[in-house]
Write a structure and sequence with these properties.
40% strand, 14-stranded antiparallel beta barrel, 413 residues, alpha+beta
């Protein structure tokens, strides 16, 4: 009993001393401790208690009141958070953090219209606020207001071209901004040793944005090995959610010497936090036999840059063939204005040269390096120029050089 009594006495004294110490703290000290409890310890009840104690000493301490509203939101006390923010609104507070905190609370709790109204009030006072503009872009995106999203993103990129999140969001909305697009490409391939004739591939495409995602039809004419052939492709990118979407594609050709007789492919894409993106899927090409490949990639937006690493793995009876590609892009303006660089090994099924996968052993060594330049004119006209150099081992110990040049034009409307 004595031990229990002494333990109770010690706890009481400790609590009393702790309370005494807190009463001697300034509002700034209490605010600092509250932030530590919220951010470091995730102890929201303690953070709320300390914030309230600071406000007892300094009722007009705006930063603490905004912080209190935030912590109420984080701890699920939405009505209390709204009470705090409405009082600040009635007090005509013009602090950027207030508009961010209040609008975020409404946005996270499925009140996008209210959140948009709050953000617009903030932007009327602070039109160059990147954080408010980004929140407006996200709210508009969630409401399927893609033109408003683009306007907010473009303002951010005008102020700060290195804004990573705005750059990533700009990519996600492109397919929604125009319902239709027609494209024309020409691919010229030069061989110094492997083949006597150069290759020519011309592609005509039509993209239509549907409520579930874009659908693309493409017709390709190829002249290879002094022969002609046609290929017809159909691809779709159905959206599963804001985070996930699919690639589903297939094609048929009338001459398997020029193109695969048919091909199929499926990939699952994910738009991940911190401006990362990832993909996993398969590709199947059928010439005289079927070639199966599994692919995975990871991408990252960082300021003006986009980095991507992709691999294809093709299991077979004897070995496993690999292809690796690293890509980097530097964006000069919008998502369609960039300079790119690519380097890799092995052949990939995404190239118009993919019939080499059938006529040459896949495991022969291939090195490639290339560059690309994309630019837009009045946003709806997109022009691309790309060139890639290949050093291809077409027989064991014997290599040749190839050069690909691709010219492209897309008209969106």
């Amino acid at each position: 009993m004595k031990r229990i009594f002494y333990l109770f006495l010690c706890l009481s004294l400790s609590s009393t001393l702790s309370f005494g110490q807190e009463t001697d703290l300034t509002p700034d000290d209490l605010f600092l401790r509250a932030r530590q409890q919220a951010f470091d310890e995730k102890d929201y009840p303690q953070a709320i208690r300390l914030a309230k104690q600071a406000l007892q000493q300094a009722p007009d301490y705006i930063d603490v009141r905004i912080f209190l509203g935030r912590v109420y939101t984080w701890s699920g006390h939405i009505d209390s958070a709204r009470t705090v923010f409405k009082e600040l609104s009635q007090a005509n507070v013009k602090d950027e953090d207030f508009f961010l905190a209040y609008a975020s609370t409404e946005y996270w709790n499925k009140q996008p219209d209210t959140a948009a109204t709050i953000v617009d009030k903030g932007l009327a006072l602070l039109p160059a606020s990147q954080d408010l503009l980004l929140l407006k872009a996200n709210i508009s995106y969630s409401n399927s207001q893609y033109e408003a999203t683009e306007q907010a993103v473009n303002k951010i990129l005008q102020i700060n071209p290195k804004h990573t999140e705005a750059r990533a969001l700009s990519k996600n909305i492109q397919e929604y901004l125009t319902r239709n697009a027609v494209g024309l490409t020409y691919n010229f391939v030069y061989f110094d040793k492997q083949f006597d004739d150069n290759w020519h591939i011309v592609g005509l495409s039509y993209r239509r944005t549907t409520p579930v995602g874009p659908v693309i039809f493409r017709a390709n004419y190829g002249n290879k090995f002094a022969q002609n052939g046609m290929q017809f492709e159909l691809e779709a990118y159905p959206r599963l959610s804001r985070m996930f979407y699919l690639y589903v594609g297939g094609s048929y050709a009338d001459n398997r010497t020029i193109f695969p007789k048919y091909r199929t492919g499926v990939s699952l894409y994910a738009n991940l936090p911190q401006s990362f993106e990832a993909e996993v899927g398969y590709r199947q090409l059928h010439f005289t036999n079927s070639i199966w490949m599994y692919t995975a990639s990871v991408g990252k937006y960082y300021q003006n840059f986009w980095f991507n690493f992709r691999t294809y793995i093709a299991p077979n009876q004897e070995d496993i063939a690999h292809s690796y590609t690293a890509t980097a892009r530097y964006y000069t303006k919008g998502i369609n204005d960039y300079v790119g660089f690519v380097i890799g090994t092995g052949l990939t099924p995404e190239e118009n040269r993919n019939n080499l996968l059938d006529i040459t052993p896949y495991k022969l060594k291939t090195f490639r390096v290339g560059g690309e330049y994309n630019f837009s004119v009045r946003r709806t006209n997109i022009i691309s120029i790309a060139t890639t150099y290949y050093n291809q081992e077409f027989r064991p110990g014997e290599k040749g050089n190839q050069l690909d040049i691709i010219l492209g034009y897309v008209k969106a409307f």
